[in-house]
Amino acid sequence: MATMLPVWTTQVRDLPEALKMIQDVGWLTGKQSEAETLAVNIHSGFLQLQRHAKALRCVYLIWREPWMTVGGDTFIHDLLTRCGLNNLTGIENRYPSLDDQSLKDLDPDLILLSSEPYPFKAKHIPEIQKLCPRAKIKLVDGSFFSWYGSRLKQAIVYFQQLEF
Q: Which regions of the chain does DSSP assign to beta strands (E)?
């Protein structure tokens, strides 16, 4: 005989949905007060996040061969926006691919190379710099841009320290 187990799923595409997920997990585990405190602290931290005066035109790369980036319906896009960045692929959905010419044509001010899911390293910077010579290229910890649980508390500190 098959055993029926309850399943809970979530789809998090922005900070409000992440905060709701934290509260829901608190309710499911009997830790409502702790979850509410965590959600409020994260929300407050993001309200205090210093944004850049001029939104840099940004591409956030998550994969190589082919280049893949983030669309406007992703959690990463929402956090980029909260950091004051203009995601040049935000008009796309999910995780669009780019060929070399498309990346060149975007002509970004800033390219962020995520540590995940593809582990970009310093050795990849010259290859990308050749395609976009004007762009500032920065390696970033992808967990702070894509993990939407309690890690968000540490993400606020990380974002404050990032220099674009």
A: 56-61, 67-68, 85-87, 97-98, 110-114, 136-140
Would the pTM of this model clear 0.90, i.e. be above it?
yes
For residue 126, whether the previous peptide bond is cis, meaning omega lies within 30 degrees of 0, is no
On the question of pLDDT at 52 being above 70, the answer is no
Alpha helices in 30-136 (DSSP H): 32-47, 75-82, 100-106, 125-131
CA atoms of 102 and 127, how far apart (whole Å): 15
Structure tokens at 139: 């390696």
Neighbours of 72 (CB within 10 A): 16
Two tokens, residue 96: 């669009």
Q: Is 112 left (phi over 0), alpha (psi -120 to 50) or beta?
A: beta
The class of domain 56-148 in CATH terms is alpha beta
Please state the rounded mean pLDDT for residues 113-117. Answer: 96
pLDDT tens digits for range 65-114: 999 999 999 999 999 999 999 999 999 999 999 999 999 999 999 999 99
Mean pLDDT for all residues in the chain: 94
Which residues, 6 or more positions from 31, have their beta carbon under 8 angstroms from its beta carbon? 25
Compute φ and ψ for 152, nearest 5 degrees.
-60, -30
